[in-house]
Amino acid sequence: MREELLAFVSQRGTLLEPAAIEYLLSQSDPLGPLDRFLAACPEVPFVVTLQDVVKAADIGRSVAVRTRAEPLAPPPRPAPAAALLAPVLPVAASFRRQGEPAAQEEPDIRILRDITGRSTCEGTLEDFTRYFRNRFQTVSRMLRGRHEFGGAQDISRARRSTREVRFIGMVSDIRATKNGHRILELEDETDRISVLVLSDSASASETFVMDEVVGVVGKVNDRGLVIAESVVRPDVPGTKPFRGIREHVRAAFLSDIHVGSNTFLAEKWAKLTAWMSSDDEVARSLRYLVVSGDVVDGIGVFPRQDEELAIDDIYAQYEALAKMMAALPDHVSVVMIPGNHDAVRPAEPQPALPVPIQKLFDSNITFAGNPSLVSLHGVKVLAYHGRSMDDFVSTIPGMNYHRPLDAMREMLKMRHLAPIYGGKTPIAPEAEDHLIIDDVPDIFVTGHVHSVGVDTYRGVLLVNSSTWQAQTPYQKMRNIEPLPARLPIVDLATGVAAIKEF
Q: Do 173 and 253 reside in the same domain of the chain?
């Protein structure tokens, strides 16, 4: 039910306070109070609070009681919208009032991690060996930092043990037994071993994917098979508070603009530009705009794409985008990374857009690769376009494009943005695996799936950025409904987020 609640508010362009979520989940009809409150609002609030839903639930109960006690009496008049909004005004107003004019703050953008100019890949066999060794060793260090794997053995030694074993391996095969158990084939630099995950074990609910690195605690039976007591992922450390800054400056996040497509939402973008340039308190507090790839629709990305293009020249697409970005107010500094539709290599990690394209844009644009770890005023933002979500959706049961935050949580648990090699996401075998989530970010942002959502996982703020493209013929064929023209906004002082709909 939690997912239904989050999807419900996301589709309406707002957010729920954690306390409001827990309250609603305790009700017999969680969506009822929420629906009543939003229906009575003349304008969708940035955040729906516990006070809001409690007030709406009380009104609903009052109506129900009176209807049962006085069936012939007319229903009570609904409370005026202003009265219903009264509890939310302090929260919504505080979000607005706390914002400081961005023009008073100098931009502070630093690229902490990025493939641009550092690619070593030539596609040789040695490249692949070096790439997987780097992945295994880096993620192994994360696991060895956990108390239960401080003394983990190599697989070759674990195979010979007759007692409890603890080791780390990369998943090379996954099989299901007829009894509902699973067998994982794990390997390290010394050997390989089979691990039985029983259907009633603590790890039974986990769905493992190829090429991820995990730790195992278990016992070896007389046939050399490990019976797993637990299978542990590297994951991010326990929940921590948002590491904010002193100034209440804001960062906004968008993605998948697809300039050049005949389904680009030009009118919605014009509303965004006008709002950013207005005297709105939130708009004036925007210091940063992070754009997570697919900024243009590209050329020849998929068969018969030319039939869906309004601009059929790649440079003309970027020229049009540059004019759109130039129209944004001066107090907004932009960080832009590429996606799978952009004019860079398709294999991840992708470098920043080429210099000839960068020269089309004003100097307030900072170009970075995909993915990139960026510091905005000291807040670490991991920006990734999100193409690997295609692999998560096709591999993990229950995963879908309408709930991208689920895939983002899995990435954090695995400490890897694209663990599955050889799937739908092309990955370059670099000497260093730039898709590992080594430094835990304060904000993790993706795009790609043309949805939108905001949540937290263990203290990391998750943001899936909205698209500025209407439903495409391909999406219609796949029954994918995009949620376009919604702008997630985050206060870098508090981590409080809101979604503005255009």
A: no
Model confidence at 93: pLDDT above 60: no
Asked whether residue 9 falls in the same domain as residue 115, the answer is no
Q: Please state the domain count of the chain.
A: 3
* Same-domain status, 184 and 110: no
CB 260 within 8 A of CB 298: yes
Query: In terms of residue numbers, what domain contains 195?
Result: 145-232
CA dist 166 → 149, 227, 232 (Å): 7, 11, 10
pLDDT at residue 11, rounded to an integer: 61
393 and 257 within one domain: yes
Backbone dihedral angles phi then psi of residue 65, each to the nearest 5 degrees: -65, -45
Check residue 33 and give its pLDDT: 75
CA geometry: angle 474, 476, 479, nearest 5 deg: 110
* Token digits of residue 191: 């050997």
One-letter amino acid of 67: T
Model confidence at 102: pLDDT above 90: no
Task: Supply the DSSP string of 190-230, one letter for each residue.
Answer: S-EEEEEE-TTSTTTT----TT-EEEEEEEE-TTS-EEEEE
106 and 187 in a single domain? The answer is no
Task: Give residue-wise pLDDT tens across range 217-230.
Answer: 999 988 889 999 99
The answer, yes or no, to whether residue 246 has pLDDT greater than 60, is: yes
Contact call for residues 245 and 190 (beta carbons, < 8 A): no
305, 429: one domain: yes
The percentage of residues in the chain with a pLDDT greater than 70, rounded to a whole number, is 87
Is it the case that residue 61 has pLDDT exceeding 60? no
Q: Are residues 301 and 200 in the same domain?
A: no
Q: How far apart are CA 87 and CA 426, in angstroms?
A: 50
| Three-point CA angle 109, 242, 4, nearest 5° | 110
Query: pLDDT digit string (tens) for 456-496?
Result: 999 999 999 999 999 999 888 888 899 999 999 999 998 98
Q: How far apart, in whole angstroms, are the C-alpha atoms of residue 200 and residue 478?
A: 35
Say whether both 463 and 363 belong to one domain: yes
80: cis peptide before it, omega within 30°?
A: no
The burial of 315, by beta-carbon neighbours within 10 Å (0-12 exposed, 13-18 middle, 19 or more buried), is given as: middle
